[in-house]
Amino acid sequence: MSFNGTAAYQLKRAIKLLNLNDETAKALLEPRRSLEVTFSVRMDDGSVRVFKGYRVQHTDVMGPAKGGIRFHPNVDLSEVKALATLMSIKCSVIGLPYGGGKGGVTVNTKELSEGELERLSRGYVRAIAQFVSSDKDIPAPDMYTNAQIMAWMVDEFSTLKQCNDFGFITGKPLSIGGSVGRNAATARGGFFVTRAACEKEGISLQKARIAVHGFGNVGGNAARIFAAEGSKVVAIADSKTAIYDAQGIDVELAHEIKAKTGTLEDYPKGQKMAPEELFQCDCDILIPASLEEVLTKDNAHLVKAKLIAELANGPTTPEADKILAEKGVTILPDILTNAGGVTVSYFEWIQNRMGYYWTAEEVEEKLEKLMYKAYEDIYKFKQENNCPDYRLAAFAIATERIVQAMRARGWI
Ligand code: GLU
């Protein structure tokens, strides 16, 4: 099954549970708008390279589309469609006044200089400018895009529109309308959800051993937050290497080494493994925080964790879901667990529109409230409807809200 097929499969489970008719299913399964662009970027050596980019708006029935921009060699229209669908569900799970969007460029940023990356970012914005705005579709960072890239993009967009429109994109630097707390928001939100679930499942977070796959913004911050809150981070991995240390990883040291050398390979302690070996390590909570479809039928049976907190988008295939359920592993699904990022993006957008900025405490308190409420809603729905898993419960709640909005607007 393709990744887009997986997103559709999850949505179809909810459609079945909610007993929705075929026309409604069609309106939910197909994105409302998809844009494919081709654009040129001048390289440092004077040559020109042509790139493919995408922006998909899965729905805008509850407000503008919202979702990140991914720069990655695997980006294609099908992946962006799947990610946009997940964004619709994610926004609806939290109750944000948004639909789902996603964008991307097929590129390996590791091959680009800083100047080339800037020209690529600006070129992409020029190519999609007609399609996006603070009222239509609001991009943000995703894999291999960051605050600096958002800054170039908002600058390019403002130049095109001849006015500062900071609300057009979120995840910006603080100096140009970013929100405090946005950087660590995905990880922080994931922590709140995991803590709530641990209370319900009788798992002690203080005693829990954590393994984190992925050491970018999300995984790196997750390791930091869980360690600071008293859990023991026993394993971390980036795309090149994994480290296991039953005594606990020195997360700050790992950050220093990653910042200096770009990899975790020089981390001096513990035992080194291939990145994918992390999934089978001895731990209580496993946090996939890298790419989609990393937990599959081939490795799910090896998982030792009791709880999986999905901070990546779509890390678990449906086959792996089944195997893990049979093993009694609880999965906190991406559409809830990693929604902290888009939630603080929403706060950023509100602050941009008000021109009034909140403190770190205000952001954190509001984030905690929304994440906690979303978890409680899903838990309650799961219990009341005898749902086999959190994922189905989350999809069902979110889909029901989207359908209500579609009905109200006469779309179905
Ligand atoms: N890219 C992030 C996600 O997948 C954040 C999106 C946003 O902030 O709009 O949830």
Helix and strand arrangement:
Blueprint: H1 3-17, H2 22-29, E1 33-42, E2 48-57, E3 65-66, E4 69-72, H3 77-94, E5 99-106, H4 114-128, E6 137-138, H5 147-161, H6 185-201, E7 209-213, H7 217-228, E8 232-237, E9 242-244, H8 251-261, E10 271-273, E11 285-288, E12 307-309, H9 318-326, E13 330-332, H10 334-337, H11 340-354, H12 360-384, H13 390-409
Parallel strand pairs: 3-5, 3-6, 4-5, 7-8, 7-11, 11-12, 12-13
Antiparallel strand pairs: 1-2, 2-5, 8-9, 9-10
The protein binds glutamic acid.
The site of glutamic acid has 12 residues, from α11.
Write down the CATH topology of the largest domain: Rossmann fold
- What fraction of the residues are assigned to beta strands by DSSP? 15-25%
What number of domains?
2
H/E element sequence: HHEEEEHEHEHHEHEEHEEEHEHHHH
Return the structural class. Answer: alpha/beta
How many strand units?
13
Using the CA coordinates, give the radius of gyration.
20 Å
Low-confidence stretches: none
CATH homologous superfamily annotation of the largest domain:
NAD(P)-binding Rossmann-like Domain
Integer average pLDDT: 97
The geometry reads as globular
Descriptors for this entry?
412 residues; alpha/beta; Rossmann fold; seven-stranded mixed beta sheet; six-stranded mixed beta sheet; 13 helices; 15% strand; globular; binds glutamic acid
What would you note in describing this structure?
The chain has 412 residues and is an alpha/beta fold. It folds into 2 domains: 33-171, Leucine Dehydrogenase, chain A, domain 1 (Rossmann fold, 3-Layer(aba) Sandwich); 185-337, NAD(P)-binding Rossmann-like Domain (Rossmann fold), CATH 3.40.50. 45% of the residues lie in helices and 15% in strands. Helix 9 links the parallel strand 12 and strand 13. The protein starts with a helix and ends with a helix.
